[in-house]
Specification:
With 134 residues, the protein is α/β, with parallel strands linked by helices. The protein contains four helices and six strands. It has one domain.
């Protein structure tokens, strides 16, 4: 069973992803509905590591040890109000969302009840993300 989101978590603090910060001419930030992002990402070949077959975030008991360590690190940073890097999203070869960086952050925040979060995307793909914008 997937744990319910925490109602008392502090609001996340975000910083620019280091990759996007190094190439500001190629990336733009936008705020997305994280639930819609995960629903689209579930068809990715990598989504099985964090999502179940229905596209729901896996509970702690269903993660690999390394994924659980990453989730715990996100939770610790969140609780301490330490900044989290904004995930980097893109459109994959099958026209679905791919999470290039920050999948553990995105999935953990959704699990903790965060539904809208800032991400980086390539400027050239901005229109592809219109359905996911908040």
């Amino acid at each position: 069973m997937t744990p319910q989101p925490s109602k008392h978590q502090p609001k996340p603090v975000f910083v620019d992803n280091s990759v996007a910060a190094q190439r500001p001419d190629q990336y733009v930030e936008l705020t997305v509905d994280a639930r819609k992002v995960l629903a689209d990402w579930k068809s990715s070949l990598l989504a099985h590591e964090l999502l179940d077959s229905n596209g729901m975030v896996k509970g702690d008991d269903h993660l690999s040890e390394s994924r659980l360590e990453k989730r715990d690190a996100v939770r610790s940073r969140l609780a301490a109000q330490q900044p989290l890097e904004k995930p980097i999203l893109g459109i994959g070869i099958f026209d679905n969302i791919e999470i290039g960086s920050g999948s553990d952050i995105l999935a953990t925040l959704v699990m903790e009840g965060v539904t809208h979060l800032p991400v980086h995307i390539r400027k050239a793909q901005a229109r592809d993300f219109d359905p996911f914008k908040v």
